[in-house]
Amino acid sequence: MKFKKSVCLLAATTLLAGGLVGCSSSPKETAAPAVASTGDTQNPYLASDKSLKLTVHMGTKDSGVFKNDWPIFKKAAEMTNVTLEGTLPNTVSDFSETFSIVMASGTLPDIMQALSKDFLQYGPEGAFLELNDLIDEHAPNLRKFLEDNPDVKSASSDNDGKIWFIPFIQDGEAEKGWFIRKDWLDKLGLEEPKTVDDLHDVLTAFVTQDPNGNNKKDEIGFFHRNTTLGIEGLMALWNAYPSYRAFDNKVVFGPLEQEYGVAMENMAKWYKEGLIDKEIFTRGGKARDILLADNVGGLTHDFFASTGNYNDQLASKITGFQFDPMLPPADVNGTVKEPSKRDRARNYGWGISHSNPDPVATIKYFDFWFSEEGRRMANFGIEGDTYTMVDGKPIFTDKVLKSDKAPVDVIRETGAQSNFGFQQDYFYEEQWTLPLAKEGIDLYKEKQVFMDKYPVLKFTNEEQKELEKINPKVETYIEETRQQWVLGAKPVDHAAFVKELEKLGAGRLVEINQAAYDRYVAELKQ
C-alpha cells in the first residue's frame, strides 16, 4: 500500500454516518521546523515555537471519540503550543471500521490511534514513522520510561526493535477476585471455603439449605455475567486454563493439557448438582445485577471495584446483605492463586503518521504526557475542577466523587482516562474504590496470589497469517464443545477433544506462540 501526503483528508469516507472527514493543516501555515526547537526555560513543555495544529484519529469504546473541547487537551495546547483536532464525528461507534477506511484511503491524519497489530503491520509499509530516534533525541521522559519498563518497550516495537507507537499503560495488579455471600455463610454456620472441596460443600449448602429464607430452592451457587471469564475462574481450581500460559519459558495451550479435561469433568458434575447457574451460558451481562438484587446469587469471580459496590447498593433492600471478597480457594494441588492480573501495556495506543508536518513537535507533545504534570492531567483532569492538590497528592473533588455518574465518566468529560498513550496512576481508581473492595485488593496483594500474565507477543507477518487462519476454527470448536460438556449434552472425552484440536492446527498455534515467546524472552535480556 502506498501512502501520500494530502491537505484534505478522507473525502472518500463520507459514506459513514456523519461523514468521516478531516483536514490536515498545511505545514507552510502552521508547522514548526522539524528540528529541536524552543530553548524557552520558562516553559519546559513547549513543543513548538509556533502554534501548531495536528489532526488526530482517536476513539475507543470506553472513552468515545476525541473531542476538540476536552479541557485537558486545551490545557495541554496552552502548555505545549500544539493543538489537536479530531477527525472522527461523534456518531462513530465502530472504530475498527473507521480505521480500515482511513488506511484504505492512503492519506492519514497526523496522529493515529490504532491496535498494536495494525501499527506493526502498516508501520513497515510506510504508514507510520519509526519513533526510536525521535524518542532518543527529543523525548527524555518517554526515553527514561521505556528504559525502565522493557516490557512496555517490547509491546510497542516490532521484532527488529523498531518502536511504532506509544501504548496506553495501565497501573495496578489486582483486577478480579472471588466474592461470596458472607451473610449466608454466617446463617448456615459455615466457614469461608479454603479448598476446592470446601467450596463444593459451601455451594451445596447454599443451594439446598435456603440461606435467603424464602422457603424456596431458588438460590444459585456460582454465577457470572461473562461465561468465558466465569469459567476461567473456576477452571483454575483444577489447575486448568482456557488459553495460553507460560511455565518455565514453555508455552502451553490450556485446552490441550490433561488438567483441562479434569476441570471440565468436575464443572459438568457441579452443574448437574445445581451448584453452577443453570443459565450461565445465556443469562448475559446483567446476571450480577439481577441475581444479587433478587437475593439468590451466592458466589462469583469478578472485578474488585465494581463488585465491591453491591453491599452499599443493596443494604437497604436486603437485610444483612454481605457480598464480601475472599482469597481464592486452594486448587487441587494446594496452591492459592489468582489467574487474572491487569495488563500493563494495552494492545493499542497512538503513533505518528508518515505525512505528519512536524514529527519532532509531535514526539515532544507525546513526551509531555509522560512528564509529572502531563501524567497528572491525563489521570485526574483539571486542577481546581476535578481535583485539588492535598499534601502533594491529587484528590478528586465532590464533582467527581459525589456525582450521579460513575467517577471515571466524570473524569472522562475532561479528556482524562481517554485511553491514549499515557501511563495510568492507580491512585485515580483507588480514591473511589470502596473500603470493602480495597480490603480484598490489599489481601490479594499481601498474599501475592497473582499469576504471571501471558505477555503481549509479536508475530511475524507469516505467523500472523497462520494464526488468523487457524484460530477461528480452534476457538469455535473449543467454545461449542465446552458448552456441551458443562451442560451435560455430551460426556467429557478429552482424548478425542485433543485429537480434533490437533487436526484443526492447535499444535501449530503452540509452535508459533513458543517461537514468539522465545523472541520476547531474548529481547528482555538484551
TrEMBL record:
Recorded superkingdom: Bacteria
Signal peptide: 1-17
One Pfam family in the UniProt entry: SBP_bac_1
Keyword line: Cell membrane, Lipoprotein, Membrane, Palmitate, Signal
Gene3D superfamilies referenced in this protein's UniProt entry, alphabetically: Periplasmic binding protein-like II
Matches recorded under SUPFAM superfamilies: Periplasmic binding protein-like II (SSF53850)
Presence of the UniProt keyword Nucleus in the record: no
Full protein name: Sugar ABC transporter permease
Lineage: Bacteria, Bacillati, Bacillota, Bacilli, Bacillales
